[in-house]
């Protein structure tokens, strides 16, 4: 099936949420101001060789000091919502668990300003900046981390829950477990393959406990959600099936169904005994939620190889239990991340969720593209960024969302990643995802052409 062109009238339902997304460590800077302490990403980015060019989030786009002007840009864009995350080490900077009022006040001011502007804040509670003191105790391999994060969620819900009615527990637990504990590319970069399942289980547990904490302490009836980056692959059907089991159903099934699939235990036999799953955990994880966020960027191409499935149970691997699967070069146009562009992958993913988990409303919580953006001064003497590739990408992916809506998917929102250029994790500042360009030497903000394009798109499509 193909996602474009769209041959029917606009499908976006009333109250569809258009917006953009950001996360704390990627934009804020001010790493040691107002009592903030290190997160595992501060430690990781300051470890030589981990992040491209040795970039760190120490300054980032200095949103901590530019937030008022930056939120004016958010208002100018005209979206209904703004998705941002709370920096955990600003809120609970020390192992004693005491809340830091300066940190809470920062986010409280942001919430108030957004509400002033008529923009709905969507608060992500965990976007990867685990306090280093929890990292020192094993991070997500320590079951206690889930309980500590629930305590943190309760504090945020108490402080902001009178004004914020939409909380996301976790952003992309796959990255926070498989890329971070299985592989080496994300903090803490442990690289111990199969332990990723244990980290994933503790993240699942944190999701359930955080849902309970927010529900207990926030206002009337908070909207709860979680955001996953489902591995979207094509190619050999056995390979696609196994990667879906390992990377996707490890999160989808416990969260939405209250079980781990039996096939997952079978596939991981010999590398993971799942003894970390305790009685009652699955009931805790299986909390009612209001929507499932999906972050979609690209589609992979996979095939079975001649290698054995388990060379070494402790080998670094982002896909433990899949070492016999090859990731092939993808066809077609690629982005500055070298990710291929496949809007139909977004359509397929939305329809797959609609068919297999029909009860849960969906939100495209991130979608966007890194481009080799360049600032040029046009004849008008004004600085421009002509990012036609980004405009085409957004256009085609929004068309895929429209097509999925038309075909019965219950999609409630679309968030472009990202409002601003920012710290792109292991790729530092070289890769730019923003619709607003940031000059990192002056902190000047320059609206890219895609900003004007998305602004008009929202104005024309919101109801
Ligand atoms: C997501 N991968 O990260 C995050 O939610 C954002 O913070 C990030 O900036 C954005 O996508 C763009 O990368 C991912 O390697 C990072 O599969 C890496 C992967 C997937 C998502």
UniProtKB/TrEMBL annotation:
GO annotation, cellular component aspect: cytosol
Identification of the protein by name: Beta-glucosidase
Domain of life: Bacteria
Family, per entry: Belongs to the glycosyl hydrolase 1 family.
Matching SUPFAM superfamilies: (Trans)glycosidases
Residues annotated as the enzyme's active site: 172, 366
Lineage per the UniProt record: Bacteria, Bacillati, Actinomycetota, Actinomycetes, Bifidobacteriales
EC number(s) per entry: 3.2.1.21
Residues the entry annotates as binding substrate: 26, 127, 171, 297, 417, 424-425
PROSITE patterns registered for this protein in UniProt: GLYCOSYL_HYDROL_F1_2
A Pfam family annotated for this UniProt entry: Glyco_hydro_1
Record field: catalytic activity: Hydrolysis of terminal, non-reducing beta-D-glucosyl residues with release of beta-D-glucose
Key word Hydrolase present: yes
Class in the EC hierarchy, top level: hydrolase
Keyword Hydrolase belongs to the record: yes
GO molecular function ontology, one term from the record: beta-glucosidase activity
GO biological process terms on file: cellulose catabolic process
PANTHER family attached to this UniProt entry: GLYCOSYL HYDROLASE, LP05116P
Alphabetic keyword roster: Carbohydrate metabolism, Cellulose degradation, Glycosidase, Hydrolase, Polysaccharide degradation
């Amino acid at each position: 099936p193909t996602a474009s062109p769209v041959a029917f009238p606009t499908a976006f339902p009333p109250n569809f949420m258009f917006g953009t997304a950001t996360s704390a460590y990627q934009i804020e800077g001010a790493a040691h101001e107002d009592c903030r302490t290190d997160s595992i990403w501060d430690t990781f980015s300051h470890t030589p060789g981990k992040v491209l060019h040795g970039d760190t989030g120490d300054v980032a786009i200095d949103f901590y000091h530019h937030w008022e002007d930056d939120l004016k840009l958010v208002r100018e864009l005209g979206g209904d919502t703004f998705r941002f995350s709370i920096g955990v080490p600003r809120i609970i900077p020390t192992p004693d668990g005491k809340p830091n009022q300066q940190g809470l006040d920062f986010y409280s001011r942001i919430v108030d300003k957004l509400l002033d502007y008529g923009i709905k804040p969507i608060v992500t509670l965990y976007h990867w900046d685990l306090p280093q003191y929890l990292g020192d105790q094993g991070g997500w391999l320590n079951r206690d981390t889930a309980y500590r994060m629930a305590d943190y969620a309760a504090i945020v819900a108490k402080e902001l829950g009178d004004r914020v009615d939409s909380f996301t527990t976790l952003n992309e637990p796959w990255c926070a477990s498989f890329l971070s504990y299985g592989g080496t590319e994300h903090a803490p970069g442990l690289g111990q393959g199969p332990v990723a399942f244990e980290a994933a289980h503790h993240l699942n547990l944190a999701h359930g406990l955080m849902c309970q904490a927010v529900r207990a302490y926030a206002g009337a009836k908070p909207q709860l959600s979680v955001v996953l980056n489902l591995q979207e692959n094509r190619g050999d059907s056995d390979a696609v099936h196994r990667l879906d089991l390992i990377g996707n159903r490890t999160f989808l099934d416990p969260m939405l169904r209250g079980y781990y699939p039996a096939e997952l235990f079978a596939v991981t036999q010999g590398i993971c005994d799942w003894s970390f799953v305790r009685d009652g955990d699955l009931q805790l994880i299986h909390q009612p939620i209001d929507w499932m966020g999906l972050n979609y960027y690209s589609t992979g191409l996979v095939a079975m190889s001649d290698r054995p499935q388990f060379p070494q149970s402790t080998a670094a691997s982002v896909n433990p239990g899949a070492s016999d699967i090859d990731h092939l070069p993808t066809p077609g146009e690629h982005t500055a991340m070298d990710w291929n562009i496949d809007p139909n992958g977004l359509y397929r993913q939305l329809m797959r969720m609609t068919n297999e988990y029909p009860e849960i409303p969906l939100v495209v919580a991130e979608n966007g593209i890194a481009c080799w953006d360049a600032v040029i001064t046009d004849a008008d003497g004004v600085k421009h960024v002509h990012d036609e590739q980004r405009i085409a990408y957004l256009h085609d992916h929004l068309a895929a969302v429209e097509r999925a809506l038309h075909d019965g998917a219950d999609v409630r929102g679309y968030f472009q990643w990202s409002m601003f250029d920012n710290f792109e994790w292991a790729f530092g500042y070289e890769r730019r995802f923003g619709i607003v360009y940031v000059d990192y030497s002056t902190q000047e903000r320059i609206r890219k052409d895609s900003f004007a394009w998305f602004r008009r798109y929202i104005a024309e499509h919101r109801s």
